[in-house]
Amino acid sequence: MKLCPQQTDDHAVAAPRLPGPTSDISNGGCRTRIGTVSTAEPVGPDRDDLIQRLPKVELHVHLEGSVRPATLLRIARRHGLDLGRLDEAGVVELFRFRSFRHFTELYEQCCAALREPADLQLLTEELADMAHEQNVRHLEVTFSPGTHRRGPGIPFDEQLDAVARGAEEARRRTGVSMRFVVDHVRGESPEECQRVAEWAVAGVPRGVVALGLGGFEPGRPASLFAEPIRWAAARGVPFVPHAGEAVGPEGVWDCLAFDPPRIAHGIRSVEDPALVTALRDRSVVLDVCPTSNLRTAVVPGPQAHPLRRLWDAGVRLTLNTDDPTMFHTDLVAEHRLAARWHGFTVAQFAGMALTAVEAALLPDPARAALRDRVRAELSGLGVVPAYPPGVAQPAPAAG
């Protein structure tokens, strides 16, 4: 395995084009056209500090996409992988994506560098460290076990033991709690998805809470994997797919047939008013990742992102990072971006945090403890949560 930039853009994803006045900013090394913006509140040091101090819950973050460049290099060298002249700055430069397809190809290369259970445990602990620095209280972490069985391979039970050990050590040291979404990569077969579904069900006692579906979306709808999705759901493991990112509303409609409590991304739902109504009426939560959508060219610029339109339409939202080190972001930065470009207030961020508490796939006692903790911290900061129009305190997800 050699870490290297991809040279083709044959499968580049065309971003939805939204009208509006434009200006230029830098987007991860690219020039991007964005709309002129005004915000509902002044942006300044006081609000930035309060955003940092807010208690947060993140439900859409990938373990493999959280690897620090220095850690990736250290792991790759330990396994004797060919790095050429690549150094930490070179890894950072690699993490500049021309398209969604380019991102998924490099993501799989990074996964291939993780060859021992200790690698996964280290990533889990380092992810918790990064979360703790941003006042994140709970994480639902997605990882893709099928990618770690290729080549030398790590058996699933060893993968799960590794991330569970990392989560327990992280909880003891930082107080950050973790649960796991076991993700099937769309490019693999339905038979492989059945294996992943079986792993997800077997992993419930060690902290697995859902079966995910990620990877390159075009031509690989959720319905292709209907049998394993329903098999897992019948055994108490819900389906939390990626959709409405590289594919439009039809991808989200396809997922809704499986009654997901949440959808990762889902932003192109905004293109279909009937779908927006369905999401609102069914209380489906969208785990939105604005910087991710910018970096993979799913949207052409910050103000073109439909975050505000979805909120104003009454859709329940959470803010997330997706693959933070690959996209040069963190959860504090996501909040500040939403404040700057979409006028979100601290009260609305508090509402998103409590929405995430209720949408987290937790048993009732754990959810109640997390809810009490987040509410107490918000009260201590003098912040009263605000929710989308027509939405009161959200109902808990089935955990």
From TrEMBL:
Alphabetized InterPro entries for the sequence: A_deaminase_dom, Ado/ade_deaminase, Metal_Hydrolase
Annotated spans, Disordered: 1-30
Keyword vocabulary terms for this entry: Hydrolase, Metal-binding, Zinc
SUPFAM superfamilies in the record: Metallo-dependent hydrolases (SSF51556)
Cofactor: Zn(2+)
Residue ranges of domain Adenosine deaminase in the record: 55-375
Xref: Pfam families: A_deaminase
Single GO term (MF): deaminase activity
Cited CDD domains: ADA
Domain of life: Bacteria
Family, as annotated: Belongs to the metallo-dependent hydrolases superfamily. Adenosine and AMP deaminases family.
Full protein name: Adenosine deaminase
Organism encoding this protein: Micromonospora craterilacus
